[in-house]
Amino acid sequence: MRILISGASIAGPSLAYWLARQGTEVTLVERAAGRRLGGAPIDIRAEAVELTAKMGLLDAVEAVRGNTRGIVFVDADGAEAQTIPNTDDHDIELYRGELVRILTDATKDEVEYIYGDGVTALHDDGAGVDVEFARGAPRRFDLVFGADGLHSQVRRLTFGPEQEFLRHVGVYVAIFPCDPALGKPDWGLMRQTPGRLVGVYSFRGTGKAAFMFRAPRLDYDYRDIGRQKNLLRETFADHGWIVPQLLDGALDTEDFYFDSVSQVDLPSWSRGRIALIGDAAACPSPLTGMGTSAAMLGAAALAEALAEHTDHETAFAEYERKFRPRADEIQSMVSTGVEMLVPLRPVAT
What is d(CA 335, CA 338) in angstroms, rounded to the nearest whole number? Predict the structure, then answer.
C-alpha cells in the first residue's frame, strides 16, 4: 500500500513512524524547504508520554527536555508579583523543533521525505487518489492523509474553505526568538494586562517570546508578515516592562509565527480515501496545552485502525470512533486556557 502524508510537523512524522513499521510504503511531503526546527516550547503530556516510550523515543526526548521551574508573573516594572512553581515531573517540556528532529530522524530511513513541495490537487476515483504537486510530477497513492495543520490544504481540497470549519476563540498569538538574557534562566516570565499577555521563556540557553491578545477576527493577509508585526506593535505599544525590546527583536527575525487561536470542527475526519489527523482534523489550539499530545495520540489511533482493518472506510470510522471523544475532551479545555492566560482581570499589574 502506498500512502501520502502531507505535513512534516508532529502528526505527520508520528503517523509515518507507525505506518512504516507496518510495512507500508510512506511518502511525506512538506511545503517548507527543509525540516521546520523552530517554534515554541511544547509539552508531551498525559498518555502521550507512555506513547513516546512505546515508540522507543523517550530517551531521546528526555535528553533535550527543558527544566522550566515555573512561571513568574511580573508588573510593568518587571518586579516579581507572583510565582507558580512547576510541580509536575511527568509531563515533558521541549522545543517543538527538537521533537520534529527526533521524529524525522526516527523515520528518515523508512519514509520518503519530500521538502519544498505541496499538494495542489486531489482526485479520488474510488480505487486510489491521483495527487498533483506544486513542483513534482503527479503521482498516485492508495490513501492520502492531511497532517498539514490549522490551515490544511488537504482539508481545503477535500472538504472546502477553512472558514466553514475554523472556530476563532477570540485570541491571537505571536511567537518568536528573543535574547534569553531578557528572561530568567529556567523560568517563564509573564506580564498580563486585561486581555493581553507577554511571556518570555528562557531555558537551555535560548529564549522565546510569546504575545497573546484578545480580539475579534482580524482582516489581514496571513502571508503579510510585516503587517502582522505592525499589528503586534500597535496592540502592545503601552504594555511596559521589556515589551519595546521584544518588539524591536521581532522586526529583525524571520522566525516569526502569528495566527489566530482557532479550533477545527469537522463533522467527519475522512472522505473517500482521504483522511485528516492532528490540527487539520481537530485543532485544539495552543491554549489547551495539549496540541502536541493530541497529534501524537491521533496518529497512533489512525495507524492502529489501519492495522486492524484492511478496508479503509472501516478503518477511518474506527479511528474516529475511538479518538474523537478524546479530541473533543481536549478541545473543551480551551476556555480554561483563555481565562488563565489572557484574563480580563490581570494577575499582576
Answer: 5
